[in-house]
From TrEMBL:
Residues 38-288 form the ABC transporter substrate-binding protein PnrA-like domain. It comes from Tanticharoenia sakaeratensis NBRC 103193. This is Lipoprotein. Keywords: Lipoprotein, Signal. The keyword Cytoplasm does not apply. The keyword Disulfide bond does not apply. Signal peptide: none annotated. Pfam families: Bmp. GO terms for cellular component: plasma membrane.
Length: 360
């Protein structure tokens, strides 16, 4: 097992956290800060510059907010029985709260069921029990905003998407981006290549090059590193990224990024656990409060910025672009006219939008 690193926990305000279910009763007692041990289980390395790095910034915020508690973490936890062993080790070491920064399903739920005195939270999870909750980001809104820019910037109308796995977060990201592009260019399409990894620079590089070779002049995706942005820079096409600001790897090609900020949420959750007020709910971190679009790239025209940001302003006021009729790739109507996909439907999106290819 990756060595457990003991780390000490800036007080940041929490906001925009939409509870999806009533709070479950909690019998977890308060903890003195100096007696607290909080464990974090990461899906990738904290140096990935992407998803895990953003979670690690949240851990740093926790240490700053609560300097007397201790934190431990393990990087690159596999999606296997080894995950169960690592989560059990957290409990054995005395952790009163375990934060898993990816979906580990039964691997974490089985441990939570056997440790009712420990609070568990799972990013991109699906289960809520007496001591297990989940949280996620509504990234589909930021993706739609960036999609508008893609539709305006792409000369061919052909967008390329470098995906990890054919899972709901990928469907939602790809579909929302294309839907945004189609709002300004109804003929826009998207080709998806999945590389079966979240962090694989060589695979992402090859996928990006293949998409450009096939005629795509705007690349986007959901990877934890900047490989396909480098491709876009070299091949003189546009690119949008995920997780954080990556413009330094392709300053001419960079359009924006779906940016994440878990720090306020982590500070809030751990503060609740210390006070004994923590509840195992389901939460979405919303647009402007945990997820957003990054500052626009230097070559994005002002007219494009303004048109995309007009949609963002409407979203912040409560407008949703995910209103039917919406059809899937086979032409079947999936969302009826006038019907709105709520966040739970978007979170569980499992079919490709009309115009998306390569995502089954």
């Amino acid at each position: 097992m990756t060595a457990l690193l003991t780390r000490r926990a800036t007080l940041l305000g929490a906001g925009g956290l939409a509870a999806l279910r009533p709070a479950a009763a909690s019998a977890l007692r308060p903890i003195r800060e100096q007696d607290a041990l909080i464990a974090f289980g990461h899906t990738g390395p904290v140096t990935d510059g992407g998803w895990t790095h953003q979670h690690d910034l949240g851990v740093e915020a926790v240490r700053a907010a609560f300097p007397r508690l201790k934190t431990i973490f393990v990087e690159s936890i596999p999606y296997s029985a080894d995950a169960t062993r690592i989560f059990r080790q957290f409990v054995a070491e005395g952790a009163q709260m375990v934060m898993a920064t990816s979906n580990y399903g039964d691997f974490i739920r089985d441990v939570a069921d056997r440790a009712p005195e420990v609070a568990f939270m799972e990013c991109d999870g699906r289960n809520v029990s007496g001591n297990l909750g989940w949280y996620y980001i509504t990234h589909w809104y930021a993706s739609y905003i960036i999609g508008i820019a893609a539709g305006l910037l792409s000369k061919s109308g052909r967008l390329g998407y470098v995906a990890s796995f054919p899972i709901s977060s990928v469907y939602a990201g790809a579909n929302a981006t294309l839907l945004g592009a189609q709002s300004v260019n109804p003929n826009a399409t998207m080709q998806v290549i999945s590389i079966n990894a979240w962090f694989d620079p060589q695979g992402a590089n090859q996928a990006g090059a293949a998409l450009v070779d096939s005629g795509c002049d705007f690349l986007c995706g959901i990877m934890d590193e900047p490989a396909y942005l480098r491709v876009a820079q070299e091949r003189h096409v546009w690119a949008a990224m995920w997780n954080t600001d990556m413009r330094r790897f392709g300053p001419d090609a960079y359009v924006s990024s779906v940016t994440l900020d878990f720090a306020p949420y982590y500070v809030q959750q751990i503060g609740d656990r210390l006070r004994g007020t923590w509840r195992p709910d389901a939460h979405f971190l919303t647009l402007g409060h945990g997820v957003d679009r990054d500052a626009w790239g230097r070559n994005v025209p002002e007219s494009v910025r303004m048109q995309a940001d007009a949609a963002r302003t409407k979203m912040l006021a409560g407008w949703s672009p995910f209103v039917g009729p919406i059809h899937d790739a086979s032409g079947r109507m999936r969302v009826a006219p006038g019907q709105t996909m709520d966040d739970m439907a978007l979170y569980s999106w499992d079919w490709p939008l009309r115009g998306v290819s390569g995502l089954a």
